[in-house]
Amino acid sequence: MATNPSKDLYITYVAREVTVQAPGLVCDGLQTLPTDRMNPSLMKPLTLLCNSALEYGVSLSSIPIKAYVEQQTVRQNLIVFSLYTTRFPGKTLKAVGIFNTFIPYKAQNS
To answer: What span, in angstroms and rounded, lies between the C-alpha atoms of 85 and 107?
Structure first.
């Protein structure tokens, strides 16, 4: 149905969103490590390395991310629209798929 986007389209959407947000969520978290356990002068190079690693991993057509999202997503097809729930470690994302677009409505810590 034209108004109800497919699960494949949702997976592509989430993979793209994760790709954009991952460096901020993952790599910026390095700044919060206790300095007694980590030499502060290593923070910037580690953050750059983290960003590069994520960019490289994502640039390979997002296949690992898409596979993970597919495994962690449940779709409730309600004919005119669908509800999607995707679980990530520590976070659950929920979205409505309607009119061939996705509207995130809930992101909660799990």
So the answer is: 10
CA–CA gap between residue 82 and residue 24 (Å, rounded): 29
Domain presence at residue 2: no
Q: How far apart are CA 89 and CA 109, in angstroms?
A: 9
Is residue 9 predicted with pLDDT exceeding 80?
yes
C-alpha–C-alpha distance, residues 95 and 86, integer Å: 9
In a domain, 1, yes or no: no
- How many independent structural domains does the chain possess? 1
Please give the biggest Cα pair distance in the chain.
Answer: 57
pTM, to two decimals: 0.64
Distances (CA, A) of 2 to 5, 9, 79: 7, 12, 10
